[in-house]
Specification:
mainly beta, disordered N terminus, 6-stranded antiparallel sheet, 0% helix, elongated, 273 residues
């Protein structure tokens, strides 16, 4: 069953633009699914793309969104990528699923899934919201910000080390893989939580929503780790006389923090004004 609640502010005249006359700006955090590590000797998976408005660190803040009245939005929560196979050892990891807010086609707002960890012998496409780390034997990491957004949704993966050295860390929302692949903090939920952490070498995957999976170890039976799923938030002022909104399915939630309403999507669904 959908969750029915009150909606903040007046109607909006567009989506994905800055507020204007009659507009209703909405804060958001849209995190895509993390990429996975690949087979033996691969790099860590890149973090899922991270796009936010007012509640994240200043370098990553974008414009608020405007939502149209009497409109149902399809909200997709990107899945974490499944691990690459253990054999053959040169197989890269997989890209995570994109997180999307839109009405039909075309997509109106999205963040890109994290890139898979790159193996030392593969030149496959492992770009993503944040890029996958490079495999050993000095294999370079892959590019981030697949969507070409400003501000960027993520960072490149780190390079792999020389002969049997450590594989590269997947890029994170806040840092490139070579400097730790760190995720970015955000307080949109009412708590200070870090999202979009790159996957480390070996079994050390990124933790939390949108984290990349760890790279495969030097063992034919050792695959990389899976990426973690993304998450989406919408936050807007609560006004008792506003029209109702609906959130579906019921596993997604609506809550109140101070003067604001927060809608949290942990699974794909709809948001209706």
């Amino acid at each position: 069953m959908p969750i029915i609640g009150s909606r903040g502010a007046g109607s909006a005249s567009g989506f994905g633009q800055r507020g204007g006359a009659g507009g209703s700006p909405v804060d958001y955090l849209v995190v895509a699914g993390g990429g996975s590590g690949g087979g033996q000797l691969s790099g860590g998976g890149g973090a899922g793309g991270y796009r936010t408005a007012s509640y994240g660190p200043a370098p990553l803040q974008g414009s608020q969104l405007l939502l149209k009245p009497e409109t149902q939005y399809t909200v997709t929560v990107g899945a974490g990528a499944s691990p690459g196979p253990s054999s053959p050892y040169y197989t890269p990891g997989n890209r995570g699923g994109s997180s999307i807010i839109g009405v039909g086609s075309p997509i109106e707002f999205s963040s890109s899934g994290g890139g898979g960890g790159r193996s030392h012998a593969s030149s496959g496409d492992t770009t993503g919201g944040s890029g996958g780390g490079g495999g050993v034997f000095s294999n370079p990491g892959s590019a981030g910000n697949l969507g070409g957004y400003t501000p960027p949704e993520g960072n490149p993966g780190g390079d792999g080390g020389p002969f049997l050295g450590p594989s590269g860390t997947g890029g994170g929302a806040l840092n490139p893989g070579g400097t730790g692949g760190g995720g970015a903090p955000n307080t949109i939920s009412g708590a200070d939580v870090t999202y979009g952490q790159g996957g480390g070498p070996g079994p050390g995957g990124g933790s939390g929503y949108g984290g990349g999976g760890g790279g495969g170890l030097n063992n034919p039976e050792q695959t990389g780790g899976a990426g973690t799923a993304g998450i989406n938030f919408l936050r807007f002022p609560t006004e008792s006389k506003s029209p109702a909104f609906a959130v579906a399915p019921g596993s997604n939630t609506s809550s109140v923090d101070g003067d604001d309403t927060i809608v949290t999507f942990t699974v794909s669904g709809t948001f209706t004004l």
